[in-house]
Amino acid sequence: MGVTAPETVRAAVDAAYRDEWGQVVATLIGLTGNWDLAEDCAQEAFAAALATWTRDGVPSRPGAWLTTAARHRAIDQLRRDTKGAAKVRQLAVLERVPIEPASEEIPDERLRLIFTCCHPALPFQARVALTLRTLAGLSTGEIAKAFLTAEPAMAQRLARAKRKIVEAGIPYRVPPAELLPRRLTAVLAVLYLIFNEGYDEQDGRRALAAEGIHLARTLARLMPGEPEVRGLLALMLLLEARRASRTVDGVLVTLENQDRSRWDHALIAEGVATLDEALAMRRFGPYQVQAAIAACHTTAPDAEATDWPQIAALYAELARLAPSPVVDLNRAVAIAMAEGVSAGLALVDELAESGRLDGYYLLPATRADLLRRDGRLAEAATAYEEALELAPTDAERRYLKARLCSL
Amino acid sequence: MKYVFLICDDEKTSSSMEEIRADPAFQAYDAEVDRRGGSLGGARLRPVAAATTVRVRDGETMVSDGPFAETKDFVGGIDIVECADLDDALALAALHPYASRGCIEVRPVWE
Q1: pLDDT digits (tens, 9 = 90+) for B8-33
Q2: CB A169 to CB B108 under 8 A?
Q3: Are A190 and A123 in contact (CB under 8 A)?
Q4: Measured between CB atoms, does A174 come within 8 Å of chain B?
């Protein structure tokens, strides 16, 4: 076999890293129960692939090649250092289980990995970091940067989490039916946070949004019968489709003023199709409802054509499934659009009186917006100023200032 | 794996041993522990007012009255149980009546 072009090999290794890293790590953890060993050997296997594939060509099943290479490395490493009963046990399993899987039907180890990473006995931030490290293959440095943490602190967070998994006896498995619904909710929360961290930021954290979508796609493939997984994927796709038009020169642009020709219509089509598949299973949940709301917005040809009564009804459903004052605030906006500003304002004032959203800048910002629509400009100005005091980011402050100046 | 359940509550009420033995919720929990092969040890503790904490720092023994941590809930007893894994231990701990009114801290035993 001749030498394969370096750029072809590089591309093949990059693609394999994206698609197979999680599976290689998950398989090695499944065999040895040793998380650090699994990560190290996966890393070495990918490094070896670059040289070997250049010499011998890219294998027909890169994932199987990488898993085998990682296993050989694990065996070597354990042989070099066979002290302690645990190592002997790990080695015995590695050597006994056949190296070449009998068929293509390998049970996907990534499901066990993701449910273990997202176990509720781990701190939430550790679940996020562990998922990004072991399943998505981000380096500790990349994760630290994404969460504005120093690398040694992130390394310690990951090490503590892995130690707890072993010492507390967190099982490496897909939870049984009676635990599955709640555990799946925990997994989806981690994926949604990863996506949102990348979605809200203007700087170098964009990659997280792509990782979130990639993980949700993988999970949707692995759990085809779970409508909420599809609901979450649809929600991410529909939000991602609008991202390019969310800001202009660093200033937030509201949905009604966004340039709809800049929306990604292929993503919208995929998001709507994914949502339809989820809804067809007829087991609704909060992610499906949020995706349905996003679909109402993204499929309207222009802001005027938005189906606000439908959106208001969906927010009412969301408030029932997952009660939250933020959902109530969004419902108030939808009611204002569907039934008139005064009906919406009445709901916003009710929320303000309840004190449940004290300190949340979108409460005065929403109130200001509705007052402006109602022509009560002096009151609107006061509310915008109140929101400016509370706004957490520059993009939001710039937007509010622009609104205040335009009154 | 062996786990210790630290059985905690705020001590607002204190049932007698007779009342606990007669409580169907405790009977159900004990039955489940027995079904799994029985308790490996355990004890009900006197209220936290009787607690004393010892710390040694730089070779010096410091004795303080009261519990180890200033929280609303206090350890009121322990159970030592054998469970397959943490999920199994959490499921059993959740059956303990104190899980509903206080909390159960589940700690793996260093083996």
Answers
A1: 988 888 888 899 999 999 999 999 99
A2: yes
A3: no
A4: no
